[in-house]
Amino acid sequence: MKHGSPLQALASSPTMVGAITTLIVIVAVFLAYNANNGLPFVPVYRVSVVVPNASRLVQNNEVRIGGNRVGVIESVEAVRLPLDDPEDQPGTATAGGTGGVVAQVNLKLDKAAAPLPENSIFRIRYKSSFGLKFLEITRGDADEMAPEGFTFIGTNDNDDPNDDDEQILSIDEVAKNEGSADGTFIAQTEFDEIGNTFDQPTRNAIRQNLAGYGDAFAARGTSLNQALEALNPLFKNLLPVARSLNAKEANLENFFPSLARTASIVAPVADDQAAVFGNMATTFGAIASDPEALKATISGGPPALQTGIDTLPRQRPFLRDFTELASRLRPGIRDLRISLPSLNSALRVGTPVLSRTVAANRRLRRVFVALETLVDQRTTKSSLVRLEETFDEAKPLTKWVVPAQTVCNYWNYFWTLLPEHLTERDSVGYTQRVSVISSPPGPLTVNLDTDLDLGAGTVPGPTVQTSLAPPGETVETGISSGGYSGAQATGRLYDPESKTGEFEPHELPIFHGNPGAPTGQNGSDCQPGQSGYLLGKLQVKNQSDANPSIIAPDLPGNRGVTDVYFNRNGTRELRDTRVEARQP
After folding, report:
1. Are strands 430-431 and 151-153 parallel, antiparallel or unpaired?
2. Do residues 260 and 254 touch, judged by C-beta distance below 8 A?
3. Using an 8 Å Cβ cutoff, are 52 and 154 in contact?
4. Are the beta carbons of 499 and 538 closer than 8 angstroms?
């Protein structure tokens, strides 16, 4: 007879299978029930931390380091600080009226987290918006490690005399905490403290808002999903907008400070602003009284927006050019303040002139009518063509004449000196001021013919030269050929044999004539009127040595511009009025 194994015998008994199953279920339930307290037979690291307030921190709340769960809170118990006068201990809860009673939180941590540095930082933080909390540990940097059963003291913090708070509220304050050697506790703001910042009517209004929003969103999950789906294009288009706002050129960081300054500016006119909103309420009431007109206005909005979408991109070149124009106008705008007095004077003078321009414009209409008639005539075009030919012919003359005024100012000089030229008084009125320069003196004689008329014919006789001077007087004049002033003056040249026409420039005038002399064509030489009386020889090509006349068209050197100006008081001054852009 063959016997089975013990396992087969056990499996064949329904009673034993049921008992083993029940035992396994009981063990599983026990382990699940005690999972938050840690599994049995697993080594742990127990420490405690004393905090001023452990509100809503209960047993089995998580303990985290760097966001990872490293243990649980084993228990929370109230303890009294071992001080004779608890108020002497800064940072304790005695200021809140607890009489030196604080909370000691006992921690059960995994061995992997042990040991903790003695200057570690502890914070009680919210795990969710429903009030569930956990204890966060930030490992310190001290060399001293907390042994098993060590108690971190978080009630002796904030020894900074410049901090009015009794507790440390940020990581930056930990560095100034002289009591951080045995641990530091950073206080957190509770939800109820946030609510207590508002008065009772405000809290009631917040409660009503939450109830109203809850009722509004209740049973509308599908609609919210559809709304989020419809908002997807908005968020896609929002990305380039956000990039533009984040660009340095947008200067968004100064936007909110500017809003703050704007608010401070409009604060003194708060009553006026309130009146504006009251008037706006009246306006909106009037709009609401005619729903059909409002409906028509709203219906016309999409086509208007579409038109803006189509046309606004075309405005970019204009805006770009306008930006460039504005940048170029900035220097003139800055100088506008200096020019305002002159502009104000011009406006005062110009206002009466503008009032008279109406009648002038009416009369000008007849001028334009006549001009239109002239343009319609067939001969006008041919006249303009001939006028163009005239201007072309006049260009060489203009190129020569214009510098005479723009450089040498001869036109103004002529009219300035002409009145003085006609101020010589005589017995009748005024005559020209003329200094007669005579030719070399000589006897005044004439040739007389002694031809005889015999009736039947004329018989030639000898030529007799006789003097026209009265008896006993000698008359000499420059028209005599006995002296010398040059061929251009007397038609005679120097005769070496008779010694007539001897060169005496200090006694006898030498003819000076500079035809075609420069009048500013080279940019600065204004020769006529500034050359004076030259001595010596300045001969041109083919001029005889016996003819000392100065007939060169361009004298050597540069006399400069004619810059002498006569003032009304009779004084003279040198003033260069040349315009660089108008020089040849």
Report:
1. unpaired
2. no
3. yes
4. no
Strands (DSSP E) contained in 357-406 are none
* Residue among 488, 524, 502 nearest 406 (CA): 524
- Are the C-beta atoms of 58 and 134 separated by less than 8 Å? no
Cα separation, 466 vs 448, whole angstroms: 7
Give the number of other CB atoms < 10 A from CB of residue 512: 17
The torsion angles phi and psi of 80, rounded to 5 degrees, stand at: -105, 135
> CA separation (Å) from 121 to 56, 69, 154, 169, 180?
20, 16, 9, 12, 8
The residue type of 27 is V
Structure tokens at 252: 């968004």
Amino acid identity at 396: P
Tell me the C-alpha to C-alpha distance, in Å, between residue 3 and each of 6, 7, 8, 9, 13.
9, 12, 10, 9, 15
Tokens (6 digits) for 184: 């530091």
Q: What is the pTM of this model?
A: 0.35
With a CB cutoff of 8 Å and minimum separation 6, the contacts of 427 are: none
pLDDT in tens, 174-197: 777 777 788 888 888 777 777 788
What pLDDT, in 10s, does the model give residues 191-240? 777 778 888 888 889 889 989 988 888 888 888 888 888 888 888 888 88
Residues in the chain: 584
Categorize the per-residue pLDDT at 64 as very low, low, confident or very high, splitting at 50, 70 and 90: very high
Q: Are 321 and 315 in contact (CB under 8 A)?
A: no
Nearest CA to 189 out of 64, 68, 53, 98 is that of 53
Give the DSSP H or E segment for 17. helix 14-33
Return the C-alpha torsion angle 304, 306, 309, 310, nearest 10. -100
**CA 371 to CA 234: how far, in whole Å?**
63
Tell me the average pLDDT across 368-390. 89
Q: What does the block give as tokens for 556?
A: 């050597």
Percent of the chain with pLDDT over 90: 7
Phi, psi of 133 (to 5 degrees): -120, 165
